[in-house]
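Preliminary data (for renewal application), adenosine-5'-triphosphate complex.
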Amino acid sequence: MNKTALRKKYLQLRSEFSIEEIDDKSIQIANIALKLPIWQFNNYHIFLSITEKGEINTEYILHILQGKDKNIAVPKTDVKTNSLSHFLLTDNTKIETNNWGIPEPKDGIPFPENKIEVVFIPLLAYDKLGNRVGYGKGFYDRFLASCKKDSIKIGLSLFAPESSVIAVSETDIPLDYCITPEEVYCF
Ligand SMILES: Nc1nc2c(c(=O)[nH]1)N(C=O)[C@@H](CNc1ccc(C(=O)N[C@@H](CCC(=O)O)C(=O)O)cc1)CN2
Ligand SMILES: Nc1ncnc2c1ncn2[C@@H]1O[C@H](COP(=O)(O)OP(=O)(O)OP(=O)(O)O)[C@@H](O)[C@H]1O
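Predicted structure:
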């Protein structure tokens, strides 16, 4: 299956769950995340979810990070350059929903990409090797390319990996882990 077909397949699969079901699965994902050896760092990056589009609700992982007093960076989309900038999430961060329904920081304290140690990544599909397919704009591929090489890249998915290997391009950066409501895949 090519990337376009995979996007379609997983958008469809995702749409079959209710918001309540996705919320339960998001809690399970956060509980599984607690068992990973990733909590000794200071600087974490997490996306804020579009819950109406069936994305995993990252609020639960966010609460864990806040409880552990971590520095948390959240992305803001720049439509002109198809790139992301990042801001420190604080009590004063004003979050606004952009044209695509993504909650984003308005502005704030910029967070340098090369300081990020752990990144939680949205995705549509992935395979057993950790290859990932996103929405197809390359936002995360470009962002991950400018993170430290040894940053830990963690996908979040409602589903087990695709059994066939996804044809990747040079710019695709693989995941280190993918957390599902049932288990963690390590790559
Ligand atoms: N919650 C969340 N935040 C995220 C991402 C994500 O996947 N989820 N991103 C992950 O990359 C980045 C934004 N990615 C985007 C990728 C594609 C489109 C997009 O296709 N827009 C269409 C309209 C789509 C629609 O309305 O259904 C367009 O430009 O025409 C928008 C944002 C950064 N923040
Ligand atoms: N590091 C990069 N520098 C420049 N262009 C890139 C880079 N990474 C990806 N791209 C371009 O972005 C486009 C989308 O890439 P791809 O189909 O892999 O997106 P995706 O992985 O599904 O999306 P995302 O990364 O936003 O989740 C492609 O045209 C690709 O060439």
